[in-house]
């Protein structure tokens, strides 16, 4: 299928993108279009979005993009910044019904607490929590330890320790010790 087959005819494309640029300016938080707000239960989906959703959501998305830029999300492939967490926290705290309440962190929001009880998050990978310098130090220390353990004298020492543990039945001795301690 040629690429052009999936495209709209030029007249439709012009109609889609011919709106004045001022139409795309983001509204301020809570700023609704001029006119009487329609009944939310009887209005069209477009009116509902324009009067009730976009005045709150669009400033939140703009704040999300600014925060993502601060967190340098656009510079690398991986980051600890979770956009849905930021947007959830932002929308919750900017809710007009919570105007006089103090700022609430994401994990203190009641519905987030309830959700995380049933759906715990996996831990954040260590590669996202440490810097490249800290990662290089860990890798280098592991490599130095490996090279030392490969040394013939160290191998001999490790074999001697293993043999000593087996001869003295150290696991059995430790188990008996703790059994006596628990009996006291």
From TrEMBL:
CDD domains: DD_IQCK. Transmembrane segments: none annotated. InterPro entries: IQ_motif_EF-hand-BS, IQCK. It holds the Pfam family IQ. It comes from the Eukaryota. PANTHER family: IQ DOMAIN-CONTAINING PROTEIN K. This is IQCK protein. It comes from Machaerirhynchus nigripectus. The gene is Iqck.
């Amino acid at each position: 299928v040629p690429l052009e087959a999936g495209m709209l005819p030029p007249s439709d494309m012009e109609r889609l993108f011919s709106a004045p640029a001022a139409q795309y300016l983001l509204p301020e938080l809570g700023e609704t279009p001029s006119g009487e707000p329609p009944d939310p239960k009887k209005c069209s989906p477009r009116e509902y979005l324009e009067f009730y959703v976009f005045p709150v959501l669009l400033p939140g998305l703009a704040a999300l993009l600014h925060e993502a830029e601060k967190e340098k999300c656009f510079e690398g492939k991986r980051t600890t910044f979770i956009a849905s967490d930021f947007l959830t926290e932002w929308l919750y705290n900017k809710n007009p019904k919570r105007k006089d309440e103090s700022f609430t962190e994401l994990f203190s929001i009641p519905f987030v607490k309830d959700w995380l009880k049933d759906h715990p998050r996996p831990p954040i990978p260590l590669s996202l929590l440490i810097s490249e310098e800290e990662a290089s130090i860990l890798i280098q220390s592991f490599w130095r330890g490996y090279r030392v353990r490969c040394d013939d004298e160290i191998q001999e020492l490790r074999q001697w320790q293993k043999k000593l543990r087996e001869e003295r039945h150290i696991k059995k001795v430790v188990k008996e010790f703790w059994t006596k301690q628990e009996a006291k």
